[in-house]
Amino acid sequence: MTTAALVTDAATVARRNLIKIKRVPDLLVFTTLQPIMFVLLFGYVFGSLAPQDPQGYREFMMAGIFAQTIIFGATITGSGMAEDMQKGVIDRFRTLPMHPGSVLAGRTVSDLMNNVIVLVVMSLTGLVIGWRIREGVLHAAVAFGLMLLFAYAFSWVMAFVGLKVRAPEIVNNAAFIVIFPLTFVANTFVPAENMPAVLKTIAGWNPVSTITHAARENFGNLFALPGRPGQSQAARLSEIEYTWALRHAEIYTLGWIVLLLAIFVPLSTAAYKKAVAR
Amino acid sequence: MEVPLSVVLAKIVCVSEAVRAEGLVKHYKEVKAIDGVSLSVPEGTVLGVLGPNGAGKTTTVRVLTTLIAPDAGRATVAGHDVVKEPDAVRSLIGVSGQYAAVDEYLTGYENLEMIGRLYHLKAAQAKARARELLAEFRLDDAADRPAKTYSGGMRRRLDLAGALVARPPVIFLDEPTTGLDPRSRGDMWEVIAGLVREGTSLLLTTQYLEEADRLADNIVVVDRGLVIAEGTADQLKDQVGGARLAVTVADTARLGEARGLLESIGSGASEVDEHTRTVTVPVSGGTESLLAAVRRLDEHQITVQDIGIRRPTLDDAFLSLTGHKAEETTEDDPAQDREREAQNA
């Protein structure tokens, strides 16, 4: 099977998945309403912890919410694959002369597009509550690109889980139990440098922290709280970049993206080739 | 151009057999799903794979349609090995499953158009073929409605249409009518009979003897992962004990006399039902026996109310081959319960 077949077949599958978003608009409403709610809740509730500068916190928090939301967004790859297995759609696909990678490629691409829509909605909400891109459009594009790439790689992890677990509800519940702590033991919502030692170390090497930190650098929203009087910018930076991973956030995140894809693209493809309903 | 004889012969052998399976085995942890299934579908014919739930029908179809690899044995579709050349096999087959694998968020049209694209038809071709099939399967009114809104019968028809998109020469239908009400089943039979007339090679699994009897040229009976009998419907019925001659006389008083005459024609012990005034006796001669009986009874001036050769039904055949009825299930299956209710209604 040729690469051309992979591209056209994947496009056909992606189009099919996107039609579902059109037919079940509740799905999109829910996936976009939730991030809007998070932006508003976290921004105003947690923002009140920093009474001197609530606006600074709101800007700081945006990258964290972006990261958390798109990672959760990537989990629908898992439930989507599980649902297609359960309904016998994968059986049908597997008896067609399609490229064996195309169902997974189509699924992960359409879920990526779903994530793009969610990012746009959240960014607009952020802009309304005062979040600003302060380092220029190019840097912002790098930030969004890195987040979407990570979400895309994570989709392949979830695809594997979905193919192995086979029950959409279980995939969702299991994902929640793993991903919620993963996105909280990080610098997403509060500065990680003040956490207890163990959590601080985990947060320092957690890729969710580094995606968030890389995004903040590129957006120019690095600090949650104002600096202490007389503290230099360099000193403030070294305080929040307390691990190698955080100091090299972009490279470290890219490393994770490559690693996840290198492991889970072949694993998921192999699982797909053997997948049969029930 | 000279072509070696062996190649010519090989071609003839390949072409003449749409599906061939030899000793297929597939075991799951404790379950022997299939335990040595061999079968053959000559090109342009219909093979009915008949058996109860859990007999191994679906596993057999999954091996033949490249979905699972067998633990042992080999199978070819149109001469291509299902394990070694799955892509070649996939481009030659159409498959319609036990439960309709339609995408319920897509409309009927979108479902078929998508499948056309995945068979690598050109865009215009895929569109035209989708419309054509929707009309053929009387789904044109519902063509642009999401499949979610379809009835069970409509979904099955759409699923079957999906199997035909690329006009594949070999089609697999896994229990195409299980769970359908009698009317939808009748509709499906018509559609399938139409395919058969067009010369498609078809492998059809079913747990309904009537279905196999109506649609299949040849039947293999599977039970507990094994082929336990094969042949045409008639051959299977003959295997149960062949034809019986049944005579109903007008006058009860002559019943004993008739019995004596018929036993001299028949090939075994007779049965007498005084209530219906009927004598039944196994015969081996078919119509000859019938004519002989008419002549003898007439010679003795015994008035006959009804006379005929009774052939055993496939139900009789299945019962005698397996020791249990075809539609008995080994485990509880709600779909089947619904099915029986629908049949009884």
Automatic annotation (TrEMBL), chain A:
Its main location: membrane. Belongs to the ABC-2 integral membrane protein family. The chain crosses the membrane at residues 27-48, 60-82, 112-131, 137-163, 170-190, 251-272. It is a multi-pass membrane protein. The keyword Calcium does not apply. Signal peptide: none annotated. Residues 26-275 form the ABC transmembrane type-2 domain. Pfam families: ABC2_membrane. This is Transport permease protein. It is found in: Cell membrane; Membrane.
